[in-house]
# Entry
Amino acid sequence: MGNCKGGPWVGGPLPHGRGSVTGAGAGGKKGDGGWCVGAMHGWGAMAMVLVAMLAVAAFAQQQEAPPVRAFTPGAPVTQPIPYSHEKHLAMGLKCAQCHKNADPGESMGLPATALCMGCHQTIAKEKAPIQALAKFHAEKRAVPWERVYQIPSYVFFSHRAHLKMGATCEVCHGKVAERAVLFREKDISMGACMDCHRREKAPNDCQFCHENR
Ligand code: HEC
Ligand code: HEC
Ligand code: HEC
Ligand code: HEC
Ligand code: HEC
# Structure
């Protein structure tokens, strides 16, 4: 191995930088497990090219299975209003009453203050958090909820497609109905997405989840 002396570099680890998937970081590093070609002549070079092509094929396979990053659950997320899923779901409310999956079905959405005020116009209206809620509502402002689960905009994802194939909320978000405060308790990293796609025989080509920029 070692350094390439003028020959092109092929193979080696997946360049895994931040930003554009096909832009920044492409090309890899020379000498970290790749093959050098062109430094020889005749049959030797041919053989090297063949070996290199095999290495490329192996690399392409490797791309199907990038190393899964270790997952650690996030800390409880502090919200501007201490809304509790546990408390409200115990009253018999359903996920779909607040998370509507409007067309085209990518997002689940968050409820408007009007929905909350349907009850809180009267219920617990003397309490400070409900007064804060009523103020957002009166000013026609959305509550600035802190996001718990979010993926970068260069990744395609559709809730509707996944609900159709039978995935439950719990698979990707954990036991929400038992949580007074939400935290990121399930892994929604690329590795986790690809694990399930592999299990369920859904496609795992880069372009399936990423823009082809
Ligand atoms: C079906 C009626 C209903 C809806 C809809 C509803 N709540 Fe509640 N909420 C309640 C009840 C009942 C309580 C318990 C009140 C108590 O303990 O005194 C409560 C308690 C709360 C509390 C705790 C108040 C406190 O300090 O004790 C907050 C905060 C709250 N709700 C926020 C919200 C928000 C935000 C929404 C909309 C996303 C919402 N609620 C929608 C009925 C509702
Ligand atoms: C009464 C309305 C209401 C109901 C019913 C409700 N939610 Fe929520 N949900 C909210 C509000 C308000 C937030 C934002 C505050 C928070 O994160 O706790 C939220 C946030 C979430 C988030 C985090 C979104 C993000 O990325 O920031 C998930 C996941 C979620 N809810 C799942 C569920 C599931 C699953 C159910 C049914 C078991 C459910 N919710 C029922 C109101 C509701
Ligand atoms: C296959 C995994 C998966 C399943 C199943 C799933 N979610 Fe999500 N959820 C995600 C991902 C990924 C995001 C982040 C989306 C983004 O940032 O664009 C998210 C975001 C959310 C949000 C924040 C608002 C939004 O749409 O971005 C809410 C609320 C939510 N999910 C609720 C639910 C509920 C309720 C269910 C069940 C009916 C559910 N999810 C099922 C993966 C899933
Ligand atoms: C629980 C298993 C599971 C998880 C987790 C999962 N997927 Fe999927 N996904 C599937 C299956 C199965 C399909 C194929 C559904 C079909 O046949 O239409 C699919 C389809 C898709 C599609 C095509 C949707 C469409 O409109 O047809 C995209 C894009 C996608 N997944 C992205 C993701 C991303 C990004 C994540 C992680 C945030 C993820 N998936 C997590 C099982 C999963
Ligand atoms: C099933 C969906 C899915 C497929 C298939 C997929 N990705 Fe991703 N990718 C994601 C998600 C979700 C993220 C953002 C979350 C994360 O960083 O783990 C991401 C992030 C990335 C990032 C940014 C990583 C970072 O550390 O910031 C790169 C680069 C990337 N993907 C490249 C690829 C390449 C190359 C392939 C083909 C081998 C691929 N992806 C296939 C879902 C997917």
Summary: DSSP finds nine helices and two strands in the chain. The pocket of heme C (ligand 3) is lined by residues 95, 99, 107-110, 149-151, 157, 159, 162-163, 167, 169, 171-173, 188 (CB under 6 Å). Residues 16 and 25 are 7 Å apart (CA to CA). The first helix runs from residue 42 to 64.
